[in-house]
Amino acid sequence: MPVAVISSPSDSVRRVIDALAALGHAERPVMLDAAARTAQQAADALGVALGQIAKSIVFRHVDSERAVLVVCAGDRRVDEHAVAARVGRLARADADFVRAATGFAIGGVSPVGHTQPPIALVDDSLWRFDRIWAAAGHPHAVFALRPDDLPRWLGATPSAVTQPPR
Fold first, then answer.
1. What global pTM score does this model have?
2. DSSP letter string over 13-46?
3. How far is CA 108 from CA 46, 86, 123, 150, in A?
4. How far, in Å, CA of 69 to CA of 54, rounded?
């Protein structure tokens, strides 16, 4: 697992570092040698199971134009119907919407440090693991956390918002 401490973070990574500090989270983000734009790339780079990657999927909430952030295990696929049943009508979020609504580029969307608070959902499949990893504002930046951190940080009750595993 080749990683390095982040010495001069970008603005988006700095927002994540600051958000984690404000939340009292002790583990700082690290930079991976290889890009981790996908959950599989992150899992490979970290040497962990695919499900240990807490991927952040963003949708556009049709009625409010807010970002809908779904955090789920890397080995699961979001069930858009289940998400819409909880928050209302959804639309796909393109790269421009994701950056404008979250402050992050696709491939580096963190669950924390958004420029505007998202509507957040956390999938209950993450609780299969004691330790998980999430993006930290850049395709090479990640941080470790526990699944129990996410509901506290995001104000979201864990629920089933992914499709059953195949």
1. 0.92
2. HHHHHHHHHHTT--PPPEEESS---SHHHHHHHH
3. 15, 25, 19, 17
4. 12
The H or E element spanning position 83 is helix 80-87
* Paired sense of beta strands 132-135 and 53-61, if any: parallel
Structure-token pair, residue 85 = 């049943």
Q: Which one-letter DSSP state was computed for residue 162? A: B
CA atoms within a 13 Å half-sphere pointing along the CA-CB vector of 57: 22
pLDDT in tens, 94-149: 999 999 999 999 989 999 999 999 999 999 999 999 999 999 999 889 999 999 99
Distance, CA of 129 to CA of 154 (rounded, Å) = 19
Beta bridge partners of 56: 71
82: part of which helix (H) or strand (E)?
helix 80-87
Rounded CA-CA distance 163/12 in Å is: 30
Q: What is the dihedral of CA 70, 39, 97, 71, to 10 degrees?
A: 10
Q: What is the C-alpha separation between 92 and 32, in angstroms, rounded?
A: 29
Per residue in 73-104, pLDDT (tens digit) is: 999 999 999 999 999 999 999 999 999 999 99
What sign for the dihedral angle of Cα 105, 110, 115, 116? positive
